[in-house]
Amino acid sequence: MRRIYVFYSAISAALAAAAVLTGVALSQLGRQESPRLVNVSNPGANIAVATLGASQAAELRGSGIGADHIRLLATREGLRFYTAQSDKGQPCFLTSNDAFNAREFNVVACLGDGSSAVPNDSKPLVDFSAAIKRPQESLMRIQRLAGFAADQIRKVGIIDEGGSVHTVPVVANVYATDVLEDTPARYIVAFDARGKEVYRHRLMFPVSG
Amino acid sequence: MVTNGFYTISCAREPKARRSVRCLIVPLAIACAVALAPSAQASINYYWGPSGFNNLTPTYPTYCNTAWGYGCAQTGFNTIWDWSGMSKVNGDCVYIGWRDSSGTFYLNTWTSYCSEFNGSEFHITASAFSSLPDYKRAFCAYFDGSSSYVRCWERDTS
Protein backbone atom coordinates (compact mmCIF):
# COMPACT_ATOMS: atom_id res chain seq x y z
CA MET A 1 0.00 0.00 0.00
CA ARG A 2 2.85 2.30 0.86
CA ARG A 3 4.43 1.68 -2.58
CA ILE A 4 1.18 2.50 -4.35
CA TYR A 5 0.85 5.72 -2.40
CA VAL A 6 4.42 6.72 -3.24
CA PHE A 7 3.88 5.74 -6.88
CA TYR A 8 0.77 7.90 -7.25
CA SER A 9 2.34 10.76 -5.37
CA ALA A 10 5.33 10.66 -7.72
CA ILE A 11 3.05 10.51 -10.77
CA SER A 12 0.96 13.43 -9.54
CA ALA A 13 4.02 15.50 -8.73
CA ALA A 14 5.45 14.81 -12.19
CA LEU A 15 2.18 15.77 -13.87
CA ALA A 16 1.91 18.91 -11.76
CA ALA A 17 5.42 19.92 -12.76
CA ALA A 18 4.59 19.18 -16.40
CA ALA A 19 1.50 21.37 -16.19
CA VAL A 20 3.49 24.27 -14.78
CA LEU A 21 6.23 23.89 -17.38
CA THR A 22 3.66 23.66 -20.17
CA GLY A 23 1.98 26.81 -18.94
CA VAL A 24 5.28 28.67 -18.82
CA ALA A 25 6.26 27.37 -22.25
CA LEU A 26 2.94 28.40 -23.79
CA SER A 27 3.25 31.79 -22.18
CA GLN A 28 6.74 32.26 -23.65
CA LEU A 29 5.59 30.96 -27.01
CA GLY A 30 2.74 33.47 -27.06
CA ARG A 31 5.15 36.29 -26.34
CA GLN A 32 7.56 35.21 -29.05
CA GLU A 33 4.83 34.91 -31.63
CA SER A 34 3.26 38.29 -30.93
CA PRO A 35 4.02 40.86 -33.62
CA ARG A 36 6.92 43.18 -32.96
CA LEU A 37 5.28 46.58 -32.89
CA VAL A 38 8.30 48.48 -31.60
CA ASN A 39 9.44 49.32 -35.10
CA VAL A 40 13.16 50.04 -34.64
CA SER A 41 16.07 47.87 -35.77
CA ASN A 42 18.10 48.41 -32.59
CA PRO A 43 17.18 45.34 -30.51
CA GLY A 44 18.55 46.82 -27.30
CA ALA A 45 19.65 44.78 -24.32
CA ASN A 46 17.51 42.83 -21.93
CA ILE A 47 17.09 44.52 -18.57
CA ALA A 48 16.89 42.45 -15.42
CA VAL A 49 14.03 43.79 -13.39
CA ALA A 50 16.19 43.39 -10.28
CA THR A 51 18.35 46.26 -11.55
CA LEU A 52 15.36 48.60 -11.51
CA GLY A 53 14.11 50.46 -8.48
CA ALA A 54 11.02 49.31 -6.63
CA SER A 55 9.00 52.27 -7.96
CA GLN A 56 10.08 51.53 -11.50
CA ALA A 57 9.10 47.88 -11.16
CA ALA A 58 5.72 48.95 -9.80
CA GLU A 59 5.33 51.38 -12.69
CA LEU A 60 5.90 48.56 -15.15
CA ARG A 61 3.28 46.41 -13.46
CA GLY A 62 0.82 49.32 -13.41
CA SER A 63 1.35 49.85 -17.13
CA GLY A 64 0.83 46.18 -17.91
CA ILE A 65 4.43 45.63 -18.98
CA GLY A 66 5.93 42.26 -18.14
CA ALA A 67 9.19 42.51 -16.24
CA ASP A 68 11.01 40.44 -18.84
CA HIS A 69 9.79 42.59 -21.72
CA ILE A 70 11.82 45.74 -21.19
CA ARG A 71 14.94 46.47 -23.26
CA LEU A 72 17.49 49.27 -23.00
CA LEU A 73 18.18 50.81 -26.41
CA ALA A 74 20.71 53.46 -25.46
CA THR A 75 21.83 56.06 -22.96
CA ARG A 76 22.16 59.60 -24.27
CA GLU A 77 22.68 62.95 -22.58
CA GLY A 78 21.81 61.64 -19.15
CA LEU A 79 18.72 59.75 -20.30
CA ARG A 80 18.08 56.05 -20.69
CA PHE A 81 15.80 54.96 -23.52
CA TYR A 82 13.82 51.73 -23.21
CA THR A 83 11.29 49.86 -25.29
CA ALA A 84 8.80 47.25 -24.16
CA GLN A 85 5.53 45.61 -25.07
CA SER A 86 2.44 45.78 -22.91
CA ASP A 87 0.24 42.83 -22.07
CA LYS A 88 -2.26 44.29 -24.56
CA GLY A 89 0.35 44.03 -27.29
CA GLN A 90 1.01 47.79 -27.45
CA PRO A 91 4.50 49.04 -28.29
CA CYS A 92 5.81 50.93 -25.26
CA PHE A 93 8.51 53.59 -25.01
CA LEU A 94 10.10 54.66 -21.74
CA THR A 95 12.81 56.98 -20.49
CA SER A 96 14.49 57.45 -17.16
CA ASN A 97 17.29 59.56 -15.83
CA ASP A 98 20.67 57.89 -16.07
CA ALA A 99 21.29 57.78 -12.34
CA PHE A 100 21.78 54.70 -10.24
CA ASN A 101 19.17 55.92 -7.82
CA ALA A 102 16.56 57.05 -10.35
CA ARG A 103 13.29 56.41 -8.54
CA GLU A 104 10.86 56.43 -11.43
CA PHE A 105 10.59 56.39 -15.17
CA ASN A 106 10.30 59.86 -16.62
CA VAL A 107 7.84 58.80 -19.27
CA VAL A 108 5.94 55.58 -19.97
CA ALA A 109 3.93 55.62 -23.18
CA CYS A 110 2.18 52.53 -24.54
CA LEU A 111 0.90 53.69 -27.89
CA GLY A 112 -2.16 52.78 -29.89
CA ASP A 113 -4.40 49.76 -29.57
CA GLY A 114 -1.78 47.14 -30.37
CA SER A 115 -2.57 46.99 -34.08
CA SER A 116 0.04 49.39 -35.47
CA ALA A 117 3.82 49.41 -35.46
CA VAL A 118 5.44 52.52 -34.01
CA PRO A 119 7.33 54.54 -35.17
CA ASN A 120 6.20 54.39 -38.79
CA ASP A 121 6.37 56.37 -42.02
CA SER A 122 3.63 58.82 -41.07
CA LYS A 123 4.83 59.17 -37.45
CA PRO A 124 8.58 58.50 -37.57
CA LEU A 125 9.21 60.01 -34.12
CA VAL A 126 8.10 59.04 -30.65
CA ASP A 127 8.97 62.40 -29.25
CA PHE A 128 9.43 62.91 -25.53
CA SER A 129 10.82 66.43 -25.76
CA ALA A 130 9.99 68.67 -22.84
CA ALA A 131 8.32 71.98 -23.67
CA ILE A 132 7.14 75.05 -21.77
CA LYS A 133 4.26 77.31 -22.81
CA ARG A 134 4.03 80.60 -20.97
CA PRO A 135 0.73 82.49 -21.07
CA GLN A 136 2.20 85.72 -22.45
CA GLU A 137 4.11 83.99 -25.28
CA SER A 138 2.82 82.61 -28.55
CA LEU A 139 5.47 79.93 -29.07
CA MET A 140 6.39 76.91 -27.02
CA ARG A 141 9.91 76.78 -25.70
CA ILE A 142 11.80 73.51 -25.99
CA GLN A 143 13.60 72.63 -22.78
CA ARG A 144 15.28 69.55 -24.21
CA LEU A 145 14.89 67.33 -27.26
CA ALA A 146 14.51 63.62 -26.58
CA GLY A 147 12.84 60.71 -28.27
CA PHE A 148 12.89 57.62 -30.45
CA ALA A 149 13.20 57.66 -34.23
CA ALA A 150 12.48 55.23 -37.05
CA ASP A 151 15.40 53.65 -38.87
CA GLN A 152 15.29 56.05 -41.82
CA ILE A 153 15.62 59.13 -39.60
CA ARG A 154 19.18 60.41 -39.19
CA LYS A 155 18.64 63.83 -37.62
CA VAL A 156 15.95 65.46 -35.52
CA GLY A 157 15.70 69.13 -34.74
CA ILE A 158 13.64 72.22 -34.16
CA ILE A 159 12.85 75.20 -36.35
CA ASP A 160 13.10 78.30 -34.17
CA GLU A 161 11.06 81.47 -34.42
CA GLY A 162 13.50 82.94 -36.96
CA GLY A 163 13.31 79.88 -39.21
CA SER A 164 16.75 78.50 -38.30
CA VAL A 165 17.09 74.74 -37.97
CA HIS A 166 18.91 73.17 -35.03
CA THR A 167 19.47 69.41 -35.26
CA VAL A 168 20.94 66.53 -33.30
CA PRO A 169 21.94 63.16 -34.79
CA VAL A 170 19.90 60.00 -34.30
CA VAL A 171 22.08 57.16 -33.02
CA ALA A 172 20.76 53.70 -32.20
CA ASN A 173 17.22 54.95 -32.92
CA VAL A 174 17.30 57.61 -30.19
CA TYR A 175 18.05 61.32 -30.03
CA ALA A 176 18.60 63.73 -27.19
CA THR A 177 20.04 67.10 -26.37
CA ASP A 178 21.34 68.36 -23.11
CA VAL A 179 19.12 70.96 -21.54
CA LEU A 180 18.47 73.80 -23.97
CA GLU A 181 18.01 77.41 -22.99
CA ASP A 182 14.25 77.19 -23.38
CA THR A 183 14.50 77.83 -27.12
CA PRO A 184 11.31 79.17 -28.75
CA ALA A 185 10.35 76.79 -31.53
CA ARG A 186 7.69 76.46 -34.22
CA TYR A 187 8.25 72.89 -35.36
CA ILE A 188 10.00 69.63 -34.56
CA VAL A 189 11.43 68.18 -37.76
CA ALA A 190 13.10 64.96 -38.87
CA PHE A 191 15.55 64.34 -41.72
CA ASP A 192 16.53 61.19 -43.59
CA ALA A 193 20.01 60.07 -44.71
CA ARG A 194 19.89 62.42 -47.72
CA GLY A 195 19.14 65.37 -45.52
CA LYS A 196 15.57 65.56 -46.78
CA GLU A 197 12.96 66.74 -44.31
CA VAL A 198 10.51 63.86 -44.04
CA TYR A 199 8.47 64.89 -41.01
CA ARG A 200 7.31 68.17 -39.49
CA HIS A 201 5.27 68.53 -36.32
CA ARG A 202 3.83 71.95 -35.54
CA LEU A 203 4.24 72.89 -31.89
CA MET A 204 0.93 74.34 -30.87
CA PHE A 205 -0.90 74.55 -27.63
CA PRO A 206 -4.24 76.30 -28.19
CA VAL A 207 -4.86 76.97 -24.55
CA SER A 208 -4.63 80.06 -22.41
CA GLY A 209 -3.21 79.89 -18.94
CA MET B 1 0.20 13.95 2.57
CA VAL B 2 1.13 16.43 -0.19
CA THR B 3 2.48 19.88 0.61
CA ASN B 4 2.88 22.71 -1.87
CA GLY B 5 4.23 25.27 0.55
CA PHE B 6 0.86 26.88 1.23
CA TYR B 7 -1.67 24.09 1.57
CA THR B 8 -1.36 20.65 3.07
CA ILE B 9 -3.52 18.00 1.47
CA SER B 10 -4.33 15.02 3.60
CA CYS B 11 -5.18 11.70 1.96
CA ALA B 12 -5.25 9.49 5.00
CA ARG B 13 -8.87 8.52 5.69
CA GLU B 14 -10.37 7.58 2.33
CA PRO B 15 -10.57 4.39 0.34
CA LYS B 16 -7.42 3.68 -1.65
CA ALA B 17 -8.77 4.28 -5.13
CA ARG B 18 -10.51 7.55 -4.28
CA ARG B 19 -7.55 8.69 -2.24
CA SER B 20 -5.16 8.03 -5.09
CA VAL B 21 -7.33 9.91 -7.58
CA ARG B 22 -7.66 12.81 -5.18
CA CYS B 23 -3.93 12.92 -4.61
CA LEU B 24 -3.52 13.04 -8.38
CA ILE B 25 -6.12 15.67 -9.19
CA VAL B 26 -5.67 18.23 -6.42
CA PRO B 27 -2.00 18.98 -7.07
CA LEU B 28 -2.79 19.17 -10.77
CA ALA B 29 -5.56 21.69 -10.13
CA ILE B 30 -3.30 23.80 -7.94
CA ALA B 31 -0.49 23.66 -10.49
CA CYS B 32 -2.83 24.72 -13.29
CA ALA B 33 -4.23 27.56 -11.19
CA VAL B 34 -0.74 28.81 -10.39
CA ALA B 35 0.34 28.53 -14.01
CA LEU B 36 -2.67 30.33 -15.44
CA ALA B 37 -3.34 32.98 -12.77
CA PRO B 38 -2.91 36.58 -14.03
CA SER B 39 -0.35 38.74 -12.25
CA ALA B 40 -1.65 41.33 -9.80
CA GLN B 41 -2.23 44.81 -11.22
CA ALA B 42 -1.96 48.08 -9.36
CA SER B 43 -5.27 49.92 -9.09
CA ILE B 44 -5.52 53.61 -9.88
CA ASN B 45 -8.43 55.99 -9.45
CA TYR B 46 -9.43 57.62 -12.70
CA TYR B 47 -11.10 60.80 -13.73
CA TRP B 48 -13.48 59.90 -16.48
CA GLY B 49 -14.26 62.29 -19.28
CA PRO B 50 -15.93 64.13 -20.68
CA SER B 51 -19.04 63.54 -18.56
CA GLY B 52 -17.08 62.75 -15.45
CA PHE B 53 -14.15 64.97 -16.24
CA ASN B 54 -15.32 67.78 -13.95
CA ASN B 55 -14.97 65.83 -10.77
CA LEU B 56 -14.00 67.55 -7.58
CA THR B 57 -13.49 65.16 -4.74
CA PRO B 58 -11.75 65.53 -1.40
CA THR B 59 -9.38 62.67 -2.13
CA TYR B 60 -8.35 63.75 -5.61
CA PRO B 61 -9.21 67.47 -5.85
CA THR B 62 -9.39 68.45 -9.50
CA TYR B 63 -10.33 71.67 -11.26
CA CYS B 64 -11.34 71.63 -14.91
CA ASN B 65 -11.56 74.58 -17.27
CA THR B 66 -12.76 74.58 -20.88
CA ALA B 67 -10.41 77.52 -21.54
CA TRP B 68 -7.65 75.00 -21.06
CA GLY B 69 -8.96 72.90 -23.93
CA TYR B 70 -11.15 70.80 -21.66
CA GLY B 71 -8.23 70.45 -19.34
CA CYS B 72 -8.09 69.56 -15.69
CA ALA B 73 -5.50 70.23 -13.01
CA GLN B 74 -5.08 69.57 -9.34
CA THR B 75 -6.48 72.36 -7.21
CA GLY B 76 -3.90 72.10 -4.44
CA PHE B 77 -0.65 73.89 -5.14
CA ASN B 78 1.96 71.77 -3.48
CA THR B 79 4.91 69.60 -4.28
CA ILE B 80 3.54 66.12 -3.85
CA TRP B 81 1.60 65.80 -7.11
CA ASP B 82 4.47 64.84 -9.34
CA TRP B 83 2.91 62.15 -11.50
CA SER B 84 0.30 62.47 -14.21
CA GLY B 85 -1.30 59.92 -16.46
CA MET B 86 -3.88 59.63 -19.21
CA SER B 87 -5.62 56.89 -21.10
CA LYS B 88 -6.60 58.13 -24.54
CA VAL B 89 -9.75 56.28 -25.52
CA ASN B 90 -10.78 58.24 -28.61
CA GLY B 91 -10.97 61.76 -30.03
CA ASP B 92 -8.27 64.18 -31.03
CA CYS B 93 -5.02 65.50 -29.59
CA VAL B 94 -4.11 65.36 -25.90
CA TYR B 95 -1.48 66.86 -23.65
CA ILE B 96 -0.39 66.03 -20.14
CA GLY B 97 2.10 67.79 -17.91
CA TRP B 98 1.99 70.45 -15.24
CA ARG B 99 0.69 73.97 -14.77
CA ASP B 100 2.12 76.41 -12.27
CA SER B 101 0.50 79.33 -10.41
CA SER B 102 1.40 81.82 -13.17
CA GLY B 103 -0.39 79.85 -15.87
CA THR B 104 2.73 78.39 -17.46
CA PHE B 105 2.30 74.88 -18.83
CA TYR B 106 5.05 72.26 -18.77
CA LEU B 107 4.39 69.63 -21.41
CA ASN B 108 5.85 66.76 -23.32
CA THR B 109 5.24 67.37 -26.99
CA TRP B 110 4.68 63.69 -27.63
CA THR B 111 1.37 64.01 -25.84
CA SER B 112 0.15 65.97 -28.83
CA TYR B 113 -0.48 62.57 -30.41
CA CYS B 114 -3.90 62.65 -31.87
CA SER B 115 -6.54 60.27 -33.18
CA GLU B 116 -3.98 57.91 -34.76
CA PHE B 117 -2.94 56.96 -31.26
CA ASN B 118 -6.29 56.30 -29.68
CA GLY B 119 -5.95 53.46 -27.22
CA SER B 120 -2.69 54.84 -25.84
CA GLU B 121 -1.75 55.20 -22.23
CA PHE B 122 0.69 57.82 -20.98
CA HIS B 123 2.40 58.39 -17.66
CA ILE B 124 4.91 61.10 -16.90
CA THR B 125 6.70 62.13 -13.74
CA ALA B 126 8.23 65.43 -12.75
CA SER B 127 11.66 63.99 -13.47
CA ALA B 128 10.87 64.27 -17.19
CA PHE B 129 11.68 67.97 -16.89
CA SER B 130 15.01 69.49 -16.08
CA SER B 131 13.31 72.15 -14.00
CA LEU B 132 9.85 72.59 -12.61
CA PRO B 133 8.58 75.10 -10.09
CA ASP B 134 8.07 73.88 -6.56
CA TYR B 135 4.41 74.78 -6.82
CA LYS B 136 2.69 72.96 -9.65
CA ARG B 137 -0.46 71.12 -10.61
CA ALA B 138 -0.58 67.93 -12.59
CA PHE B 139 -2.48 68.76 -15.77
CA CYS B 140 -4.12 66.99 -18.68
CA ALA B 141 -6.17 68.26 -21.58
CA TYR B 142 -7.84 67.25 -24.80
CA PHE B 143 -8.92 69.46 -27.61
CA ASP B 144 -11.99 68.45 -29.50
CA GLY B 145 -14.67 68.56 -26.86
CA SER B 146 -17.45 66.07 -26.91
CA SER B 147 -15.90 63.68 -29.38
CA SER B 148 -12.95 63.04 -27.08
CA TYR B 149 -12.99 60.51 -24.35
CA VAL B 150 -10.07 60.24 -22.01
CA ARG B 151 -9.33 59.02 -18.54
CA CYS B 152 -7.01 61.27 -16.66
CA TRP B 153 -5.50 60.93 -13.25
CA GLU B 154 -2.85 62.25 -10.98
CA ARG B 155 -1.03 60.54 -8.19
CA ASP B 156 0.32 61.69 -4.88
CA THR B 157 3.82 60.23 -4.78
CA SER B 158 4.79 61.55 -1.36
Q: How is this structure best described in words?
A:
The complex is a heterodimer of chains A (209) and B (158). By secondary structure, chain A is an alpha+beta fold. Chain A is built from two helices and 14 strands. In chain A, the strands form three sheets. In chain A, strands 7, 8, 10, 11, 13 and 14 form a six-stranded antiparallel beta sheet that branches. In chain A, strands 1-2-3-4-5 form a five-stranded antiparallel beta sheet, with no helix packed on it. Chain A is elongated. The termini of chain A are far apart. Chain B has 158 residues and is mainly beta. Chain B has one helix and eleven strands. Chain B has one helix spanning 16-36, and strands at residues 2-3, 8-9, 47-48, 62-65, 71-74, 81-90, 94-100, 105-108, 121-125, 136-142, 149-156. Chain B has a five-stranded antiparallel beta sheet with strand order 4-5-10-7-8, with no helix packed on it. In chain B, strands 3-11-6-9 form a four-stranded antiparallel beta sheet, with no helix packed on it. A two-stranded antiparallel sheet of chain B has the order 1-2. The relative contact order of chain B is 0.20. At the A-B interface, helix 1, helix 2, strand 4, strand 5 and strand 7 of A face helix 1, strand 8 and strand 9 of B.
Brief digest:
The complex is a heterodimer of chains A (209) and B (158). Chain A has 209 residues and is an alpha+beta fold.
Features:
heterodimer; A: 209 residues; alpha+beta; 6-stranded antiparallel sheet; 5-stranded antiparallel sheet; 20% helix; B: 158 residues; mainly beta; 4-stranded antiparallel sheet; 1 helix; 11 strands
Detail the topology: elements first, then pairings.
The complex is a heterodimer of chains A (209) and B (158).
Chain A: H1 2-33, E1 45-46, H2 54-62, E2 71-76, E3 79-85, E4 91-97, E5 107-110, E6 125-127, E7 130-133, E8 140-144, E9 146-149, E10 155-160, E11 165-169, E12 174-176, E13 183-191, E14 197-202
Antiparallel strand pairs in A: 1-2, 2-3, 3-4, 4-5, 6-9, 7-8, 8-13, 9-12, 10-11, 10-13, 13-14
Chain B: E1 2-3, E2 8-9, H1 16-36, E3 47-48, E4 62-65, E5 71-74, E6 81-90, E7 94-100, E8 105-108, E9 121-125, E10 136-142, E11 149-156
